[in-house]
Amino acid sequence: MKLNDKVQKDILSIADLDFSLGDPLLGRLGNTPPFYFALFAYAVALFSSFIIAALAGTLFPGGEFAGQALLNDWFYLLTETISILVLWTYYGWISRAPKEALVILAAAGTLAPEQTQLQKAAKILSNCWLTWVMLLSALVGAWVYYRQYADPTPALWYNASGGYLLFRTLLVILPVAFATTSILIRIVVNVNVIKTLLKGVKVNPLHPDKAGGLAPLGQYALRTSYLIALAGIVVAFSLKVVIASQNSASAAFLVLGIIVYVIAAPYSFFAPLGTAREAMKIAKTKALLEISHQFDSDYTSAFGKLDGDAQPLKATLEKIEQLQKMQSITESFPIWPFDAETLRKFFVAISSPIIAGLISLVTEKVLDFVKGLVQ
Asked: pLDDT digits over 83-129, tens only?
């Protein structure tokens, strides 16, 4: 079989992999851009929120309602807008992105999985029961949310009655919980599939992407970590608001979210790249060993030429010098499938919740200081 034919076969085999895990929503999404789907989900959530507030008389601040009105709840309007748009965009993206990255690697000849590896990957992706796990987890999350806010203390625009709260839980919280659990499960599943297929990777240490030819994989991991970082920012700000409102139940839930973030942030970036790193380390070690064996052979040979003519010894020493230069070049080969810029972006992303929290805290302190001066 010609190389081009082999590459074409690898591309088609990877393209046939189904990353939807049998999710019917993804089937309906088809080729629709994920952001359009996210806009629809946001429109449903926003419309339902206004309907609830209008029926409950909690749309505008003031009047008989002594709690927080919808149009005065800036935190909800901001965080829910960001959360819904980002979550549902990633929900569609994360079921397509791994395949796109793997197809690019196959087209470049970097990835050449064996049939057994493709079959194992397809078996991992055939676990359609995972969609039921996502749905069950979402139902549990929605139930916890409903129970937490069923007590109308403090009074909020959506918990004036159990019916309004149930309406919001079904139309907003349940879908958001499903998208969240879906993304988390897919991150883990995608890691296992990538690890399986990357056992057939061919590392190109001097590739222009400075990542052994595996830059598309690094970009996928980086974009996944962006989602985790954004979730961390929302959790950090939510925790600050909840602590200010002295809601201990919500605070404990958000602290758990921070713990999950600390684990998920590095996992989302480094886990998909672990197998590629092993392949790159093996390729580098193999090259260094070959150079080392040749160096030992030539160095030993040089001793046998010490009492002979100078020319053979000179030629052997020149070869040894070239081997030393070759060793230096090989030592510089990368062992992670990303360059320094990608790593810098990752660390900026995962530290963003801390930076955002510090900025918020400093801003609050400065405003309090200014108010004190004015008064």
From this structure: 888 889 889 898 888 888 888 888 888 888 888 888 998 898 888 78
Cis peptide before 154 (omega within 30 of 0): yes
SS3 66: coil
Higher-pLDDT residue of 93 and 243 is 93
The C-alpha torsion from 89 through 92 and 94 to 100, rounded to 10°, is: -120
**Angle, helix 3-15 to helix 97-107, in steps of 10 degrees:** 180
Alpha carbons 357 and 354: distance in angstroms, whole number: 5
CB 272 within 8 A of CB 194: yes
| Tens of pLDDT, residues 4-17 | 777 788 788 888 88
Side chain identity at residue 169, one-letter code: T
In this predicted structure, the answer to whether residue 177 has a pLDDT above a threshold of 80 is: yes
DSSP label at 273?
A: G
Q: Which amino acid is at 96?
A: R
For the chain, the structural domain boundaries read 3-202
Q: List 111's β-bridge partners, or say none.
A: 201
- Report the largest interatomic distance among the alpha carbons of the chain, rounded to a whole angstrom: 108
Determine the pLDDT at residue 1.
45
Which DSSP string corresponds to 118-162? HHHHHHHHT-THHHHHHHHHHHHHHHHHHHHHSS-SS-BTT-SSH
Task: Tell me the pLDDT tens digit for each residue of 333-373.
Answer: 888 777 778 888 888 777 777 776 666 656 656 656 556 66
179 backbone dihedrals φ, ψ, rounded to 5°: -60, -40
Query: For residue 39, what are its two tokens?
Result: 């806009």
> Mean pLDDT over residues 42-60, rounded?
88
Tokens 């260094």 belong to 288
Distance CA 294, CA 291 (A): 5
Q: Which long-range contacts (CB under 8 A, 24 or more apart) does 68-77 make?
A: 68/154, 68/155, 68/156, 68/157, 69/157, 70/157, 70/158, 73/156, 73/157, 75/237, 75/238, 75/241, 76/49
Please name the helix (run of DSSP H) or strand (run of DSSP E) that holds residue 56, with its range, or none.
helix 34-56
Q: How far is CA 337 from CA 68, 120, 344, 367, in A?
A: 49, 23, 14, 45
Residue with tokens 């040749």: 294
Q: Which residue has the tokens 């052979």?
A: 297
